[in-house]
Structure formats: C-alpha cells, structure tokens
C-alpha cells in the first residue's frame, strides 16, 4: 500500500507524519484558525496559522530549556551531597507529575485558593506545577515535548473516535 492510500490516522501510526506536516495540518484546521482568531482582528489564514504555530513550537522549546536549566541549577538533577549528576528514575519522575495533578484535584474538591499564590486557585497553580515537572523531565530526557504536542494535536484532529458523531454513538467517548 502506498502512502497515498493510507488514511491520515494510519500515516501517523506508521510514523510518516513529522512535526512540519503536523503543523501544516493544524494550520488548515478550521478549529485551530478559530482558536487563533482571539489574537487577530482579521480572519486567520493557513499561512498566518502556520507562522503562529511555528513560533509557539520555538518558544515552547525555549520554555522547556529554561525550566530544565533552572531545575538543574537548583540541584534537582544532581546528588545533594556531592553535586555530581545523578540518574533520575522515570517512575519517580512520572509520580511527581501525578502528585501535582492530585494536589490540583484536592484544590478542586475543597475549592481552595493556593497557599503560595494567594490570588490564584490551587487547581490552576498545581496544573502549572505539573507543566513545570513535565517540561523538566522532557529537558532531562532530551525529549522534544512541543514537537510531540503538535504532532499529537494534529493526530487527534484526524482520529475517528474524536469526531463528534463517533462520541455521540453508543459506546463513544463521552469524557
């Protein structure tokens, strides 16, 4: 079967959609253009959307590098006693992210204001903490999380089980 005969979803599964292609697919999405309209007074063209998405990718990568650099400088990736680099356990790193999400849920459950940033809800702050942890792990592992993010967004746009009609069907995804 040639690439032309594969569905977009199958091409993603086969690893045939790279970040540039994902950005191009997203830029032509009416949903993406509508979301970007809040930043521009005029209609959003695919060319404008492509430029915006490429900038987001660039600045996202910078944010990941910044967060990981700050955490490395604070000693989170080294032995506290010796200062020597230490290997971080992936399971532990995953659970640290889960902990932030759990703390966010506790904020939702009790409708709490954050105890450190008193002008924000705890849910919002803990989601921010989860993002910090995710981007730190991404930096520490050499992941390109923002490229993965755009590729996953584009993939989700073409997934049959993410379409409204599929979600409304019996046994469709409701949440």
Q: Top keywords for this entry?
A:
63% helix, 175 residues, 8 helices, mainly alpha
In short:
By secondary structure, the protein is mainly alpha-helical. The protein has one domain (7-168).
Protein architecture, described:
With 175 residues, the protein is an all-alpha fold. The chain has one domain (7-168). Helices cover 63% and strands 0% of the residues. The chain is built from 8 helices and no strands. It has helices spanning 8-13, 19-27, 30-36, 46-73, 90-110, 122-141, 145-158, 164-168. The longest helix is centred in the middle third of the chain and has 28 residues, at 46-73. The protein is globular, with a radius of gyration of 20 Å. The relative contact order is 0.13. The mean pLDDT is 94.
Which helices and strands occur, and which strands form pairs?
Elements lengths: L7 H6 L5 H9 L2 H7 L9 H28 L16 H21 L11 H20 L3 H14 L5 H5 L7
Helix pairs in contact: 2-4, 2-7, 4-6, 4-7, 5-6
Overall tally of structural domains: 1
N-end to C-end Cα span: 35 Å
Element pattern in H and E: HHHHHHHH
Beta-strand percentage?
under 5%
Q: How many extended strands?
A: 0
Helix/strand-derived category reads mainly alpha
Number of helices: 8
Determine the fraction of residues in helical runs and give it as a percent range.
55-70%
- Major sheet size, sense and barrel closure: none
Low-confidence runs of at least 5 consecutive residues: none
User: C-alpha Rg, in Å?
Assistant: 20 Å
Shape: globular
Mean pLDDT: 94
């Amino acid at each position: 079967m040639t690439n032309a005969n594969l569905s977009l979803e199958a091409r993603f599964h086969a690893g045939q959609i790279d970040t540039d292609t994902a950005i191009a697919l997203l830029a032509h999405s009416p949903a993406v253009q509508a979301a970007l309209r809040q930043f521009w007074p005029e209609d959003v063209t695919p060319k404008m959307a492509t430029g915006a998405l490429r900038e987001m990718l660039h600045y996202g990568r910078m944010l990941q590098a910044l967060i990981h650099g700050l955490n490395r400088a604070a000693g989170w990736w080294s032995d506290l006693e010796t200062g020597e680099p230490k290997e971080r356990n992936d399971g532990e790193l995953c659970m640290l992210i889960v902990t932030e999400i759990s703390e966010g849920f506790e904020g939702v459950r009790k409708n709490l204001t954050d105890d450190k940033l008193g002008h924000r809800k705890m849910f919002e702050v803990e989601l921010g903490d989860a993002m910090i942890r995710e981007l730190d792990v991404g930096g520490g592992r050499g992941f390109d999380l923002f490229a993965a993010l755009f590729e996953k967004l584009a993939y989700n746009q073409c997934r049959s089980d993410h379409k409204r009609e599929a979600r409304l069907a019996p046994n469709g995804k409701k949440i």
